[in-house]
Amino acid sequence: MQKGEPRKSSFPLLKEFLDLKSAEVRAIVQLEALVNLRREISYAMDDLVPGEVMQRVRLVDIQLEKFSFILLAGINSTNLKWATTLHAMSLGMESIKLSGIQTVESGSILSELKQVSESDPPRVKASAERCVRFCDDFTKQTAELFEESVNVVGEAFNVDQHAVSVFIEAEVRSTIVFQFSRTASWAMRNVRAVLGQPPWDVLFPGTATGSLLFAHSISEIPEHELQQPRVAVVDRAEGDEDIPHAIKGIVLGHELPHLSHLGVRARQAKVVFINSEDTTTFKDFKKAWTSNSEDWVKLVVSLGVEPLRMEDAADSSRAEGVSDTHEKVVIDIPEPVAKRALVVAATDVSKESAGTKASSAGILEAAAKEHGDFKVPRSVVVPFSSFQRAAQAGGPELDYFGILQGFDELSLAEKETRAEAVAATILYKFPLNQDIVRKIQGSFSKETRLMVRSSANCEDLEEMSGAGLYDSFANVPVSDRGAIAEAVRKVWSSLWTKRAALSRSQYKVPHEKVVMAVLVQEMVEAELSFIMFSNNPINGASNEVYIEMAVGMGETLASAEVRGSPYRLVYNTSKDRAEVAALASFSYSLQPGVGNLGLEKKAVDYSRVKMTTNSDWREEMTRRLAKIAKFLEAHYGKPQDIEGVVVGKTIYLVQSRAMVK
User: Fold this and answer.
1) Which of 441, 527, 560, 661 has a 20 to 30 A CA-CA distance from 584?
2) Can you list the alpha helix ranges (DSSP code H) found in 217-334?
3) Percent residues over pLDDT 70 in the chain
4) Which residues are 297's β-sheet partners?
5) How far apart are CA 377 and CA 562, in angstroms?
C-alpha cells in the first residue's frame, strides 16, 4: 500500500458487512461487522496523508456511524436478553470511541464492558451506572454547546423558543450516544431487579416534615431565608457542604458516598436523607411534586421494600419538623495545653495539646506495632501552642482574640464578612516561625511528599465531627520550604472559612476557645483508599463493619466532586462473611500530580483493578480491614470511624476517630 491509499485489508471487512446487510441478518451481527470495519478504517486513517482520499474515507466512516445508530435502535426495539444487551453495550461503546467522543473515558468503559458477564450482577450494575452517567454528561455538554449559539440565531430570525428547544433535543437524540443510553438504561433497570435493589439509596432513614423546597444544589439554599422546617429536593451536592439548619430531609438527584463529609453531617444532625441512583426516576419524582412547592409534606425514608414515600402533611403534623437537633447537643471543647516545642512527634501529643486527629495518629502508631497487619505513615505535629504564639506575636495591633468577640451576635452577612477578615489576618499577618518549616523538613527524607492536615480542637469529636470543615493539602514536597509554609498557614486560616465559622455558630461552639494544630504526614500514594465504620452506620448493627472504598486518593470518598459510587462492603463478624453491596463506578480517581502540588483526575479502568476483577482478593481484603476495625474499636474503647489506603497488599491507616453519636 502506498502512502495516501486506503488499506487493502479493509476490503474483506467491507464486503462482509455489505453481505450481512443485504442478507438482513440480526442487527447485533451487522453491528459487530460494522464495528470491525470502522476499527480497521481508524487504523487506515493513521496511514493516510491529508488530502482527498483521507476526506473520502472520513465521510465513509461518518455514514457508518449513522448506520450504527440505526442498528442499535433496532436492537433496542427487540425483546432484549442479557447476552445481547451486554454485547450491544460493548459494541456501542466502541462505536462511540471510534467516533472520537471522550476517548479516554469511553476507552476505559470499553475495557470494563469486554469483561462484564451476566453471572456477576454487581459488576454489571457498576458498569451500567458508569455508562448511564457517561451518556447524561454527554447530553448535558452537547445541549450547552448548542444552546447559546442556537438561541442567538433563533432570536435573530424570530424563531419560537419551543422550536429552538426541539432543535437542540433533536441534535442530541440523533447521536449514537442517545441510542447507547437506551441500551445502558435497560441494563441498569434490569440488573436492579436481579439484585432486588430499588433506584433509591438510603443514607439516613427516618421521617421529616416541613415545607417543600426545590434547589439546584445544597450550597444554593439560603440559610438566612428559611424561617420554617424544610424538606429539600436537590439536583446535586458537592459532598462538602454544611446542611442549613432548617433542612430536615433531603432527596438528592445522584449517588453520594455514605461516608462522605455530607453523609456524616446528615447523620450527626439527624437529617433524613435519600439519594437517587436513576436520573429518570428522580426527574419523575420532581415532576410529580413540582406543583406542591412550598406545601407542607412528610418525607418517609426507610430501609424496607419502599425506601421513599412522600405525602401531603396535615396541619396537625407540622410540629414534627420544628425541633432543633443542634441545640440538644452540648459540645465539649478541650482546653488547649501548651507544648514548648514548635514541632512534636505525633506519639508525644494529646488531644489537649494538638487535637483528636493528631493525637490519634500517635495512638495508631503504637496500635500498629501491637496488631501487625497495618502500618501508619510517619507523622509530626505543629501543636496548638505554635498557633497561639503566632496569634499573640502580632501584639495589640493584630488583636486576634479581640476581633472574635461578639461574633455570634452579628447578622449572617456580618458574620461572613468578619470570618473572611479573620481568615485573612491568620493567612497574611500571623508570623510563621521558620524553625517550624526546618523541623518539618528534618523529620522526613528529601524525596517525601507530605499531607498537611488540620487538627482543630473542635473537630473529630463524638458530638461533632467537623468533617471537611477545615482544610488539608496533599502532595506537598518536603524539599519546598515555601510550599510547606504556605500549607501550614492555609490550614491555620481554614479555622475561619465562612463555612467553618457558621457551622460552629450553629452548634454553639465558643469561637474564642477554638485553636488549630497541623498534622504533617508522609503521603502514601494510594492504589485504593477507604473509610470504614466498625459499626454499620446505615442500620446500626454492631456486628457489621461497613466499608467504602475508591481507586486512588481518599478525597474521592470524602466529597462528591467525582460522580459515581464507591465499593460498598459489609463484613458480618457473627457469620464471618463478607458481602458486596456495590462495586465502584467512579469514572475518575484522584492521584498526586506529577511535579505539581495537589491532586489531579485520572480515568479509572476497572478491568485492571483487582478489587473489581478478583472476588477472592476482594473478600480477603474486606476480612482483613474488618478485623482491623474491630481491633481498633476495642483499642479505643468505642466504635471507630477509620480512614486509610491500600498499596499492593499493605494496609496503611491515616486516621481513626470515634464514630459520631
Assistant:
1) 661
2) 261-268, 279-289
3) 94
4) 210, 312
5) 26
